[in-house]
Protein: Cytochrome P450
Organism: Gymnopilus dilepis
Amino acid sequence: MLEAYNELLPVSGNVLLLVVVILSWMYFFFNSFTYKLKHIPTVGGSSNILLSYISSLRYNFHGQEMIQEGYEKYKGSAFKVPTMTRWLVVISGPQMLDDVRRASDEYMSLDASESEILQSKYTAGKAIHSDPWHANFFRAPLTKHLSNRHEGIVEEVLSAAEDIFRGLKTDGFQVTVHEIAKKIIARGSSHIFVGLPLCRNADYLQLSEKFTMEVFLSSHLINVFPKVFHPILGCLITGKVTKTVKQVENYIRPLVQIHTNQKVQSEETVDNEFGNLVTWMVDEAMASGRPIDLDDLTRRILGTNFVSISSMAAALTDALFNLAAYPEYASPLRQEIESVVGAEGWNKISVAKMVKVDSFIKETQRLGTGGVTGNRQLLKNFTFSNGIFLPAGTYFAFASHSTHRDEAFYSNSTEFQGFRFSDVAPEEVDDPKHQMVSLTPEYLIFGSGRHACPGRFFAAFVLKIAFAYIVLNYDVEFPENGRLPDHWWFQTVCLPDVKAELIFKKRLQMG
Ligand code: HEM
């Protein structure tokens, strides 16, 4: 073959081949993100396109250390860390955060980024990120519907906690905290997602949890391999997740059928203010002419479980560990809970008045957050107000864990101070900026800007009820020689020790 070219061309075939290889390499290099991001300093390894793969292995188990190193060197600016599939640019500081907060969706997308992180086309389903219309229910209508649902949510969370504890021994039992937290949270949340009686169905709840685990594990598995392997791995994984979705579909189908029939038969509009996410989605689909696709609706329910239940269960688990580690908080917390519940019962107003409870959980989340939040992919070139330019296609996120431990924002920043946000000057007590749900540049647990977590009001409500119930009714302590368990880290994900146990002792004076 090369001889034939040699006869045709004035240069030898070998030289031609070399030129083609060099030109292709230059083409790929100058089009690569390694080149496009060469002005952004690299942390935790080499900027070299090949060596960065080796550094990306380190990212799997030392991701937060790499981000902390970058934060200390480039605070208020940007740096990049290598992951197996791409560079992640990490930004920090109020100014850059504000730029993101003000940027329109034309420039940057949370969904594009989440879709890649969760490998949704192989796992949860592509549509939940490419057309996330179900998320709108958490922006306005959920908040609107929630105003009628507080009572139901309170009842569900309290009865979930009662049922779960009743099933255990009454006098000093030792249990895996995350198991209890997950069960209470899953029931309380499912009350709004699928309603009664399905929110109490053990098989449905177990399948939802299975879906969450499958999506979490498989997306992380796919993401530790270079992109070229994704379709093969994806094919192996998709079948497993689809099987779980089909099983859950059997539970969602009757809900959809009943609601659709009611709507078709009723001449008047069905009053759906006491509905749930399933019925709100059916209404929306019927009103907008979308097909009622059971597989799609089921995936949207499961996707919602995914974003909500695991984060809330982690927060409740961590809060209970902190309660055992810092028992001096139990008494003032109980005084507050007894006082407001005694005066008003369990309701929206009394929960809002639990400022110490709010602060304790907020402080727990401050220290228990993952390495980054606010993941975005740039859809267009973007220049931050401090002059930093990032090209379209870049993935970036905020250094949340490092921000939360920065002495510039929090005094004794690594110390747990349960009432950090409630022990404030008297004139500031009612200032909403201290609440768990408020978004500030130094508290990034719920992200920031137009895509900040819309479910945070619901999350705070459920978490406060569940935590307050346990504080009021149980003394918690570590088993002998126990201590505050370390968090589990993988890449930038931070989880409480899901195997750690606590002893729960029923208190005599009941609330
Ligand atoms: C402790 C519990 C929770 C935590 C820590 C949490 C955290 C977050 C974070 C960090 C984001 C991304 C924000 C950003 O990038 O700026 C987010 C988005 C989101 N969260 Fe949550 N979340 C929680 C509970 C919930 C709950 C209970 C729901 C639903 C009821 C929910 C629904 C959503 C949705 C739909 C989005 C996407 C928003 C969008 O695309 O604009 N989350 N959440």
About this structure: The chain has 19 helices and twelve strands. The two ends are 88 Å apart (CA to CA).
